[in-house]
Amino acid sequence: MSLTEKNYFCLEQVLKQFGVLSKKNHFGGYCLLIDNVIIGLVLDDNFYLRGCLFARSYFEAIGLKRLVFTKKGIPLELRYYLVFEQIWENESLLFHCVDLAYRSAREELLQKQSAVVRIKDLPNMNMSVERALGKIGIYKADELQEIGAKACFLKLKQHGRLMTSIKLLIGLAGAIEGYHSAVLPIKLKQELINWYNTVG
Q1: Domain residue spans of the chain
Q2: What are the boundaries of the signal sequence (predicted)?
Q3: Is the pLDDT of residue 129 over 90?
Q4: DSSP of 98-123, one letter per residue?
C-alpha cells in the first residue's frame, strides 16, 4: 500500500511516542530511526518495518511480505516487512508492530555491542599477535585496551614473544584506538617512538 500523507502523519505520531525521530538515506529511500535505532524504511512510497529477532517471527506470522531489493540483477530478501492496509487502518496494531520493531532493533544493537571482540579482528592485528598476547594472559580486545599498548609491549618483550619492534608498538596502540597504523595521530605516534627509544 502506498504511504499516503495521512498514513505518514499517523506513522509519525506513533513513532514520536517511542523517542526522538530522525531519517537517514538508505537503498534509494530513507530509514526512520528512533533514538538512532533503525526501525523502518520508506522506499517507493511504501513503508517497511525492520524485522529482526522476535519481530521477524511475528511479522512473518501475520503475513507481512519481505522487501526484495535487486542489486546488480540479483534479488536480495531484506529484513524489512511491508506494512499492509489492514495495519494502517488499525492504530493499535500499527503501534504494536512499531513497538516490536523498535524493541527488537534495540535488543539486536545491545547484543552486538556486548559481543566479545577478538584481538585478531582489531586494526593492525592478526592471528600471530593474538596468540602471542594469549600466551601472556591477554585474550580479549577489552583486556588489551585495559592494559594499554606500552604494558602489552613490555610483557611481550619480557617473555620473548614476537619481534618487539616499533611497528608492533604502533600497531598495538592503533588497535586500541581503532586506527590503522598508517593513520594513527602523529602526536600519539611521535610519543610512542620517543617512549620506544627510551626502553629500546
Answers
A1: 5-114, 119-199
A2: none
A3: yes
A4: HHHHHHHHHHHHHHHHHSPPPGGGST
